[in-house]
Amino acid sequence: MNRRLVALIALAIGLVLVAAGFAGAQGAGRSLQSRLIAPGASDVQVRSSGLGEQRISYHAPGAAYGWFFTATRNLAADGWTPPVDTRSRIRTAPVVYWRITRLWFVYISERVALQGEPNDARISIRREIIIPQRLWP
Description:
The longest helix is centred in the first third of the chain and has 34 residues, at 3-36. Helices cover 34% and strands 34% of the residues. The chain has helices spanning 3-36, 66-77, and strands spanning 42-48, 53-59, 95-103, 106-117, 120-130. A hairpin with a 2-residue loop joins strand 3 and strand 4 (106-117).
């Protein structure tokens, strides 16, 4: 077989795998959204900017920062890495959780930033696909 044809077939298979990985990450992202929204939340707004970034905002009834503790508890239960700086200043600087998941030969890097007021949440989710360079000659 022609080397060029083999390279094109390998490239096509690689693109299909990356697209499938991204679709899987998007599906996981929908379940992540539901885990970050506090029960009874109102005025929920989810905005997507590009393929890998979402912003969630909502008003949460109940105790002050109850939405924050619900989100952090769910993130910890799902195996997210907690922030290095544990001094919460969520009004002025976001509290950032992150994780990297391997999906076939690529990695999905996810970052969740929690910020807001006592009863108003502002959460951003960012995802990136990482293709390790060592796979390519």
